[in-house]
What does this fold into?
Amino acid sequence: MLDNRYQTFLVLATTKSYTQTAQQLYITQPAVSQQIKSLEGELGVTLVTYQRPHLTITPAGRELADLIQRVQVQTDKVLDHLKHPRTPKRLTFSTTLSLSEFLAPQLIRHLQLAGSYQEITCRVTNTQAALRALTTGESDFALIEGNFDKSQYDYQVVRQEPFVGVVAANHPLADLPTVGWPDLLKYPLIVREVGSGSREILLHLAGAANVSLAEFSQVITVNNPTAIRELVAQGSGVSFVYRSVAATAIARGDLRVLPLAAGQLNHDLDLVYPRDSYLARDYRNWGAWLRGHQG
It folds into this structure.
């Protein structure tokens, strides 16, 4: 386990204040400064630069703080298990709104049938919040579709899901042989909120075609896939979703998949977890199960 200097540095990296760090740890400011200088001397790395009144964590310091956070979270989990081996096992994971509609329920049912966990908690949020919960230890793992820094986490690609444009079955675009961005811009766009993986993917697609959301006749932001499906089915505009999110509405004939001129995009869906997690074997097994289970 890491000594107190690492814990002091982690608090400093969070507060960016010697005063607040000293207050949180119930030590003096000179003691905080001394511990940081000692740690820098031992590691041979500059962790902090300080020019009153601004304290800056260096890139090396940021990397170290992330490592300390991961080690602390994993250590706490292992020690809790060792101290309380007979306590019912609990599992908490985060999932994005889109994946909560088809992927998360499949995994929960699989875990339920396996019978290993007495308590399973699923938190539905957006991609960025899900990643933050991994860092803080609030979630053990996450199911996400957004882009993320793969050097910071371990992960399993569990599926490549079609990301499709959809409109109401009676929409003017529904019967066109092919649809390009100039066709889409004539109609309102219904899109997820900032921080959503789905919105990020759409922005990437539009950017590749030199199109911005401001060019659409109207942009409607909705933070719920069910509401988006309903709005599209009513003819309120066009949207982009994972095919599995709209599969029932498509099969029922309420929605039509647009034949995009650029072709269909398949996007990775990932099971993401902290690096060096002591549950890594379980995560790999669950990722393999999800890859083989498409229903």
Summary: The domain at 4-68 is CATH 1.10.10.10 (Arc Repressor Mutant, subunit A). The longest strand covers residues 153-168.
